[in-house]
Amino acid sequence: MTGARTGYAMPETARFNVLGADNFSQTAALSFGNKLAGPSCASTDFSAFSKNTTIDLTHCSLIDGAYKLTVRSRDEAGNVEESPSTRDFMVDSKAPSVEIMQTPPARSTELAADFVVIGQDFNNVTAAKDLHYMFRVRGLFEEFSAPVADPSIAVDGLPSGDYTFEVTAIDLAGNHSPIKGYAFSVDNLAPVTSVGTKVPNWTTAESITIDATGSDDRTDSLSLEYLVTLDNAQITRMRAPLSLPNITEGRHSVRVAAIDDFGNVDPTGVLMAFNVDRTAPETALDRTPTKFGTGTFRPTLTGTDNLTAQDELRYSYRVTRGSNTSEWSEPALAGDVAIMLKENGPVKIEIAAVDNAGLIDATPVELSGIVKAASGCSCSSQETTGEDLMSFAALAGLVLLLRRRRKA
Ligand SMILES: [Ca+2]
Ligand SMILES: [Ca+2]
Ligand SMILES: [Ca+2]
């Protein structure tokens, strides 16, 4: 006898198939009679013999409870089975219930989502351990799974998206619980950071502003925030434009990494280094001549600065003749400063160091003297260096000194 295989049936599925065997009669020639014991549809006597091998109890309004079906067979010769077959079964018309006990966060950054569900059958007709579950993750797969016995349900391979986990519990009679659902969202892609205009390498500013932009699969660009790390220490979370106030003088590094609404952080971000310099350099000359030949005067300049290296300092100059003062020249490296002195006469030369931040020495070096064409110079070029002139002056002074000594 088969049917209600698990020993449980819903009123609408209580059907049994019978199969007999005999030493002489063909199987198909056997006939069967049955009787039912239980809270409804019970009969004290066996039914009339019939060759029908299906016993259908679905039409007799079975109520929930325990039943025993007894079936006996009869062969063509009229011999009736002495020890009839029995089948105990439980009719269960009440659905179980199900609860979702463990879920991923409503806003998850994981590829996987783990659920734990627990079902309970009405009046515990089906024990909790015998319940099965079918589930689906709407947004990932829409069809319910095959029944599973394990109440721990793991879903993997979730791309960024919105999902609803749905589950139903099934008792042994086949009753399904109402569906329970849990909506959750996943974002497991980090945003990408970019910066519109990089911070200039050198600045004199008190505060730094960074026009960060970013893009993300789920978070709108305007809603993105940024983790700002200054000099590997201080981390601030802020919206663009990013403002870093009260930056001290010196070399700094700043890393900007976008963070999306789910907390995913750009793993690389944008790294910038810059120098803040608010102190002007000092200008120095190794000699201060007062006499200049006509031609190009190349001073030997050695400035100092808080941050700009000496060989990176540049210099501007201007020349005053009478009441006429030239514009400050374009800053040039020390070796490239060439001051053209064309006309004889008094001259004032001012030279000011300029640092990498563009700050100019507010107290320039001042040279005042006379320009005079060097006599006895047969140079074809008019190039005369300040050092040459100084050496010449020193030599002349030495000659003068020797003459005086001779006279003495
Ligand atoms: Ca039930
Ligand atoms: Ca994202
Ligand atoms: Ca400086």
Brief overview:
The chain is mostly beta strands and 408 residues long. Helices cover 5% and strands 38% of the residues.
The CATH first-level class of the largest domain comes to Mainly Beta
Count of individual beta strands: 30
Question: What is the percentage of strand-forming residues?
Answer: 35-45%
What is the overall pLDDT average?
A: 90
The overall number of domains is 4
Look up the CATH topology of the largest domain: Immunoglobulin-like
Measured between the Cα atoms of the first and last residue, the distance is 151 Å
Per CATH, the architecture of the largest domain is Sandwich
Ligands bound, unique: calcium ion
Unreliable runs, pLDDT <50, ≥5 residues?
Answer: 376-403
Note the total helix count: 1
Please provide a written account of the structure.
- The chain has 4 domains: 84 residues, Immunoglobulin-like (Sandwich), CATH 2.60.40; 90 residues, Immunoglobulin-like (Sandwich); 85 residues, Immunoglobulins (Immunoglobulin-like); 102 residues, Immunoglobulin-like (Sandwich).
- Helices cover 5% and strands 38% of the residues.
- Strands 23, 25, 26, 27, 29 and 30 form a 6-stranded mixed beta sheet that branches.
- The longest helix has 22 residues.
- It is rod-shaped, with a radius of gyration of 50 Å.
- Bound molecules: calcium ion (3 copies).
- One calcium ion (CA) binds next to loops.
- The site of one calcium ion (CA) has 10 residues, from loops.
